[in-house]
Protein backbone atom coordinates (compact mmCIF):
# COMPACT_ATOMS: atom_id res chain seq x y z
CA UNK A 1 0.00 0.00 0.00
CA UNK A 2 1.28 3.48 -0.84
CA UNK A 3 1.70 5.45 2.39
CA UNK A 4 -0.01 8.80 2.86
CA UNK A 5 3.45 10.39 2.76
CA UNK A 6 3.97 9.16 -0.81
CA UNK A 7 0.41 10.02 -1.87
CA UNK A 8 0.81 13.60 -0.65
CA UNK A 9 4.22 13.94 -2.30
CA UNK A 10 2.76 12.62 -5.58
CA UNK A 11 -0.13 15.09 -5.29
CA UNK A 12 2.32 18.02 -4.85
CA UNK A 13 4.36 16.86 -7.86
CA UNK A 14 1.25 16.45 -9.99
CA UNK A 15 -0.12 19.86 -8.99
CA UNK A 16 3.34 21.36 -9.50
CA UNK A 17 2.56 24.02 -6.93
CA UNK A 18 1.98 24.34 -3.21
CA UNK A 19 -0.09 27.44 -2.37
CA UNK A 20 0.45 28.86 1.11
CA UNK A 21 -0.89 31.68 3.24
CA UNK A 22 -1.90 32.80 6.71
CA UNK A 23 -4.67 35.20 7.65
CA UNK A 24 -5.90 36.22 11.11
CA UNK A 25 -9.51 36.08 9.96
CA UNK A 26 -11.15 32.66 10.25
CA UNK A 27 -13.88 33.58 7.75
CA UNK A 28 -11.30 34.93 5.28
CA UNK A 29 -9.15 31.81 5.63
CA UNK A 30 -12.16 29.60 4.89
CA UNK A 31 -13.10 31.62 1.79
CA UNK A 32 -9.55 31.43 0.43
CA UNK A 33 -9.43 27.68 1.00
CA UNK A 34 -12.77 27.22 -0.79
CA UNK A 35 -11.63 29.43 -3.68
CA UNK A 36 -8.35 27.54 -4.12
CA UNK A 37 -10.20 24.23 -4.05
CA UNK A 38 -12.76 25.42 -6.59
CA UNK A 39 -9.87 26.47 -8.87
CA UNK A 40 -8.40 22.95 -8.75
CA UNK A 41 -6.03 22.92 -5.77
CA UNK A 42 -5.81 19.54 -4.02
CA UNK A 43 -2.77 20.10 -1.77
CA UNK A 44 -2.45 23.23 0.33
CA UNK A 45 -0.33 24.70 3.14
CA UNK A 46 -1.69 26.97 5.87
CA UNK A 47 1.15 28.78 7.64
CA UNK A 48 1.71 29.03 11.37
CA UNK A 49 2.40 32.76 11.29
CA UNK A 50 0.02 34.32 13.79
CA UNK A 51 -1.89 33.85 17.00
CA UNK A 52 -4.96 32.47 15.22
CA UNK A 53 -3.07 29.81 13.26
CA UNK A 54 -4.04 26.83 15.42
CA UNK A 55 -7.76 27.67 15.92
CA UNK A 56 -8.08 28.64 12.25
CA UNK A 57 -6.37 25.43 11.17
CA UNK A 58 -8.78 23.35 13.25
CA UNK A 59 -11.70 25.13 11.56
CA UNK A 60 -10.17 24.62 8.09
CA UNK A 61 -9.82 20.93 8.89
CA UNK A 62 -13.55 20.75 9.76
CA UNK A 63 -14.45 22.48 6.48
CA UNK A 64 -12.07 20.22 4.56
CA UNK A 65 -13.55 17.06 6.09
CA UNK A 66 -17.10 18.21 5.34
CA UNK A 67 -16.67 19.73 1.87
CA UNK A 68 -13.39 18.64 0.26
CA UNK A 69 -12.37 15.15 1.39
CA UNK A 70 -9.84 14.82 -1.46
CA UNK A 71 -7.81 17.85 -0.33
CA UNK A 72 -4.52 17.40 1.57
CA UNK A 73 -4.22 20.11 4.23
CA UNK A 74 -0.76 20.78 5.65
CA UNK A 75 0.77 23.25 8.07
CA UNK A 76 3.80 25.43 7.38
CA UNK A 77 6.27 27.51 9.44
CA UNK A 78 6.79 24.67 11.94
CA UNK A 79 10.07 25.36 13.72
CA UNK A 80 9.73 23.53 17.04
CA UNK A 81 8.63 20.11 18.30
CA UNK A 82 5.89 21.81 20.36
CA UNK A 83 4.39 23.37 17.20
CA UNK A 84 4.72 20.09 15.31
CA UNK A 85 2.91 18.17 18.03
CA UNK A 86 0.13 20.78 18.36
CA UNK A 87 -0.69 20.67 14.64
CA UNK A 88 -0.32 16.89 14.35
CA UNK A 89 -2.90 16.68 17.13
CA UNK A 90 -5.08 19.11 15.14
CA UNK A 91 -4.93 16.69 12.20
CA UNK A 92 -2.42 18.12 9.73
CA UNK A 93 -1.63 15.91 6.73
CA UNK A 94 1.98 17.12 6.38
CA UNK A 95 4.50 19.58 7.84
CA UNK A 96 6.48 22.32 6.08
CA UNK A 97 9.29 24.23 7.80
CA UNK A 98 11.45 27.26 6.94
CA UNK A 99 14.42 25.55 8.65
CA UNK A 100 15.92 22.10 9.29
CA UNK A 101 15.15 21.06 12.87
CA UNK A 102 16.13 17.40 13.35
CA UNK A 103 13.77 17.14 16.36
CA UNK A 104 10.81 18.05 14.13
CA UNK A 105 12.03 15.57 11.51
CA UNK A 106 12.12 12.85 14.15
CA UNK A 107 8.51 13.51 15.18
CA UNK A 108 7.31 13.41 11.56
CA UNK A 109 9.39 10.34 10.65
CA UNK A 110 8.15 8.41 13.69
CA UNK A 111 4.54 8.66 12.44
CA UNK A 112 5.39 8.38 8.75
CA UNK A 113 4.40 11.98 7.97
CA UNK A 114 5.77 14.03 5.08
CA UNK A 115 8.16 16.72 6.41
CA UNK A 116 9.34 19.41 3.98
CA UNK A 117 12.20 21.43 5.52
CA UNK A 118 13.51 24.75 4.23
CA UNK A 119 17.16 24.97 3.17
CA UNK A 120 19.40 27.76 1.89
CA UNK A 121 22.81 26.04 1.68
CA UNK A 122 24.28 22.74 0.48
CA UNK A 123 25.15 21.90 4.11
CA UNK A 124 21.52 22.35 5.17
CA UNK A 125 20.36 20.20 2.24
CA UNK A 126 22.77 17.47 3.33
CA UNK A 127 21.46 17.60 6.92
CA UNK A 128 17.85 17.49 5.63
CA UNK A 129 18.73 14.40 3.59
CA UNK A 130 20.26 12.73 6.65
CA UNK A 131 16.87 13.19 8.31
CA UNK A 132 14.99 11.61 5.38
CA UNK A 133 13.56 14.72 3.69
CA UNK A 134 11.93 13.48 0.48
CA UNK A 135 11.13 17.02 -0.71
CA UNK A 136 13.23 20.05 0.25
CA UNK A 137 11.97 23.62 0.16
CA UNK A 138 14.55 26.08 -1.16
CA UNK A 139 13.98 29.21 0.90
CA UNK A 140 14.18 32.16 0.48
CA UNK A 141 14.22 31.36 -3.23
CA UNK A 142 13.95 35.02 -4.27
CA UNK A 143 17.47 35.53 -2.85
CA UNK A 144 18.92 32.31 -4.28
CA UNK A 145 17.29 32.23 -7.76
CA UNK A 146 17.04 29.38 -10.30
CA UNK A 147 20.84 29.46 -10.82
CA UNK A 148 21.31 28.11 -7.30
CA UNK A 149 19.21 25.01 -8.10
CA UNK A 150 21.07 24.49 -11.40
CA UNK A 151 24.40 24.72 -9.58
CA UNK A 152 23.66 22.27 -6.77
CA UNK A 153 21.25 19.73 -8.20
CA UNK A 154 24.02 17.41 -9.48
CA UNK A 155 25.50 17.32 -5.97
CA UNK A 156 22.21 15.90 -4.73
CA UNK A 157 21.15 13.62 -7.57
CA UNK A 158 17.57 12.44 -7.24
CA UNK A 159 16.62 14.96 -4.53
CA UNK A 160 13.33 16.79 -5.08
CA UNK A 161 13.40 20.59 -4.66
CA UNK A 162 10.63 23.20 -4.38
CA UNK A 163 11.48 26.93 -4.31
CA UNK A 164 9.36 29.25 -2.16
CA UNK A 165 9.65 33.02 -2.52
CA UNK A 166 10.28 34.77 -5.83
CA UNK A 167 7.97 32.49 -7.82
CA UNK A 168 5.62 34.49 -10.04
CA UNK A 169 2.51 33.76 -12.11
CA UNK A 170 4.47 34.33 -15.27
CA UNK A 171 5.46 31.81 -17.96
CA UNK A 172 9.11 32.98 -18.17
CA UNK A 173 9.61 32.92 -14.41
CA UNK A 174 8.02 29.48 -14.03
CA UNK A 175 9.93 28.09 -17.00
CA UNK A 176 13.24 29.28 -15.50
CA UNK A 177 12.48 27.50 -12.21
CA UNK A 178 11.39 24.20 -13.75
CA UNK A 179 14.28 24.30 -16.21
CA UNK A 180 16.67 24.65 -13.28
CA UNK A 181 15.45 21.30 -11.96
CA UNK A 182 12.68 21.94 -9.41
CA UNK A 183 9.70 19.56 -9.24
CA UNK A 184 7.14 22.05 -7.88
CA UNK A 185 6.96 25.66 -6.67
CA UNK A 186 5.65 27.20 -3.46
CA UNK A 187 3.38 30.20 -4.04
CA UNK A 188 2.51 32.63 -1.28
CA UNK A 189 1.95 36.36 -1.62
CA UNK A 190 2.36 36.39 -5.42
CA UNK A 191 -0.83 34.31 -5.56
CA UNK A 192 -2.66 35.09 -2.32
CA UNK A 193 -1.78 38.77 -2.04
CA UNK A 194 -2.50 41.21 0.78
CA UNK A 195 -5.14 42.78 -1.48
CA UNK A 196 -6.86 39.44 -2.05
CA UNK A 197 -7.03 38.95 1.72
CA UNK A 198 -7.92 42.47 2.83
CA UNK A 199 -10.44 43.19 0.04
CA UNK A 200 -11.85 39.69 -0.41
CA UNK A 201 -10.87 39.52 -4.10
CA UNK A 202 -11.83 35.86 -4.41
CA UNK A 203 -12.77 35.98 -8.11
CA UNK A 204 -9.31 37.37 -8.87
CA UNK A 205 -7.75 34.64 -6.73
CA UNK A 206 -9.78 31.98 -8.56
CA UNK A 207 -8.63 33.28 -11.98
CA UNK A 208 -4.99 33.61 -10.91
CA UNK A 209 -4.96 30.12 -9.41
CA UNK A 210 -6.35 28.62 -12.64
CA UNK A 211 -3.78 30.59 -14.63
CA UNK A 212 -0.90 29.51 -12.36
CA UNK A 213 -1.92 25.84 -12.58
CA UNK A 214 -2.17 26.07 -16.40
CA UNK A 215 1.22 27.81 -16.76
CA UNK A 216 2.86 25.26 -14.46
CA UNK A 217 1.50 22.31 -16.46
CA UNK A 218 2.82 23.95 -19.66
CA UNK A 219 6.27 24.69 -18.25
CA UNK A 220 7.15 21.90 -15.85
TrEMBL record:
Protein's pathway: Carbohydrate acid metabolism
Name of this chain's protein: Bifunctional 4-hydroxy-2-oxoglutarate aldolase/2-dehydro-3-deoxy-phosphogluconate aldolase
Pfam family, one: Aldolase
Family note: Belongs to the KHG/KDPG aldolase family.
Source organism: Pedobacter lithocola
Quaternary structure note: Homotrimer.
Record's keyword annotation contains Lyase: yes
Keywords tagged on the record: Carbohydrate metabolism, Lyase
Domain of life: Bacteria
